[in-house]
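ARCHIVE CARD
Drawer: 12
Card no.: 0347
Subject: one protein chain, sequence and derived structure
Cross-reference: see card 0346
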Amino acid sequence: MSSFALHSSLYVRTAYININDLNVFYKNSFSSNSQNNYFEVDKLDEVIKELSEVPVLVLNELGISKFTINFLNAVLMKILENRYKNNKTTLVSSYQPIDKLSKKLVNNETDNLFLETCFNKFLFILDNLCTQKEALKW
């Protein structure tokens, strides 16, 4: 968690996270060699809650690594949906154009219909987050 100055005395709580690091954290939370599995899952829930509630969130590197459907649904979609519902400012950066993300974002999955549904929902939320116009008040 970090803060940055918008104006001389105005600060906004901000979180910056590389989405790929979040994916690794998610995978490690469920690793079979973890002795404290419940503790790790609790930490994951705390991270999801914090990233959902922080006033400004910067998600970096979307499309660099491929994710599982489980990660998209259980983590990324949950964060984005919560932020969308609560009108939180969300910045997402990617080196990929949005129409190429489906091939770059998800590992090959057997259930293509589920994958398509999940990805369409992801794009809908992402598109709505991007089109929300909220001016910063100085």
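Annotation on reverse: Helices lie at 19-29, 37-53, 69-85, 101-105, 112-131. Residues 72 and 118 are 8 Å apart (CA to CA).
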